[in-house]
Amino acid sequence: MLPRWHIVFGFLFTAVVWLASPDLNIIYVLTLFFSTFLIDVDHYVIFVKRNKNYSLNKAFNYFLKLKKKGDRKKDSIFIFHTVEFHILVALLSFFHIIFLFVFIGMVFHSLLDIFTMIKEKSLQNREFFLISWIARNRN
Q1: pTM of the full predicted structure?
Q2: Which residue of 28, 32, 75, 116 has the lowest C-beta tally within 10 Å?
Q3: Given this model, what pLDDT does residue 79 score?
């Protein structure tokens, strides 16, 4: 899913949460909102590592071209999208409530990604488990 749609759906989701719980601390609301799309920073990190270029626009176009070509392989690990990272953030929520809102935002983002990949028949192109990626790339 394109970042703009993560932002739009993240805004709508956050608005519903805030309407359902208007006394919620604004910091938690903003954390939830930003967590629905900033999880994609791992894509940018991979672009910078591969291309030695810090242009956000070029990173966006790079992944857009890969997606259009159907050339997104499991050779890269989008660390913030892994089940293990989600579990880590969920565990951190036992120590501070703000991580609960990060976790909820990340799960929302991941569900949007999964629904999009199912629709596009590209679910097999993403590695969801860090441990599987490590085992496959040990060499």
Answers
A1: 0.89
A2: 75
A3: 92
